[in-house]
Design brief:
Elements (H helix, E strand, L loop, with lengths): L3 H29 L4 H30 L4 H45 L5 H104 L4
Helix pairs in contact: 1-2, 1-3, 2-3, 3-4
Length: about 230
Amino acid sequence: MASSCDVHVRICGQEMIKYDLEIKALIQDIRECCGPQPVLMDLNSTVKEKFNRLRQRIQDMEQMAKEQDRETDKQNILSETEGHRKQMFSNQVAWRKANLACKLAIDNLENDELLHGGDSVRQRKATKESLVQTSGDITENLMSISRMMSQQVQQSEETISTLATSSRTVQETNEEFKSMTGTIHLGRKLILKYNRRELTDKLLIFLAIALFLATVLYILKKRLFPFI
């Protein structure tokens, strides 16, 4: 049965996939947008909201990874999170390009209006100012993602360092075990040697007693029965 943490991780993963698809659809809408300005502003506002939610889910996944007891579970969650972060960064770049394409389309439309006698200077100025603001927001989001990736790299380096330390500890323990095994084998040989020596000593003692008894019997026989 899956634990509550596993369920939460699965739910977060599904939500991140949903936000990713929604962001891609909105970026496509921006790329195809030719104005007016309020439409573009609404689209960018929605995209920004989706990115904020996606970023929050990524942070939730990283926190859940830190709470894992097993290192394999932690690394699996971090690997999945890193994939979503890279996808978010790719979407940020696509978002910026889509805004630039939209700006070009709006400029072309305004140029056509000017050629036909339309007066849209103020609207064009507002559009450019809004696009500059949007580009600034996108740049800020890209910098935020860059900082998050830097933190993730640092965490990965710390994890690798911990694994290296654990590996050295296991290796040292293995060497100690081998040394202890050699000591045990040596002790076993010494015990076997001692047992054989003890058996030899008992045999010599038995022979000495037998020889002593034979000598005593011989002396008694000579003194008590000299004629035999």
